[in-house]
């Protein structure tokens, strides 16, 4: 009897730990907005491409809680950005415990899934199973 109780406690504790470690994708939304630069990309075959320098960064802006835009920006030494008028509009959807972003331009539409979004990191997987790890962009400090 005591062994059954111990086993039940162990099972309940394990389930509680696993459940508490699971991320709620809705919590990612608050961290998406901002300036991001690619740190590395892990391809489906396992190869990794590290990015030590980025000449462009991604700017993500939410217009409301579920819609927004993403633009490519080119930082300059003056602390400002060069950009075009081009922007990718997107819609956020929570589906099957995942946070998906549906992008649309005049030329294409696609989906990416956010695997992680924190104050400092953004991790996204695309339809080719390439995982992009972004870090929060910090401007160059030349002082």
UniProtKB/TrEMBL annotation:
Domain of life assignment: Bacteria
Protein name: Lipocalin-like domain-containing protein
Organism of derivation: Bizionia myxarmorum
């Amino acid at each position: 009897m005591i062994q059954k109780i111990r086993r039940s406690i162990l099972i309940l504790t394990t389930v509680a730990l696993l459940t508490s470690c699971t991320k709620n994708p809705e919590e990612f939304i608050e961290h998406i907005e901002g300036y991001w630069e690619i740190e590395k990309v892990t391809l489906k075959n396992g190869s990794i491409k590290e990015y030590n320098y980025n000449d462009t960064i991604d700017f993500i802006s939410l217009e409301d809680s579920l819609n927004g835009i993403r633009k490519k920006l080119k930082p300059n030494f003056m602390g400002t950005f060069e950009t075009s008028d081009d922007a990718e509009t997107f819609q956020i959807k929570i589906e099957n415990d995942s946070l998906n972003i549906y992008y649309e331009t005049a030329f294409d539409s696609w989906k990416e899934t956010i695997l992680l979004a924190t104050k400092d990191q953004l991790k996204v997987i695309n339809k080719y199973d390439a995982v992009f790890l972004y870090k929060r962009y910090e401007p160059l400090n030349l002082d």
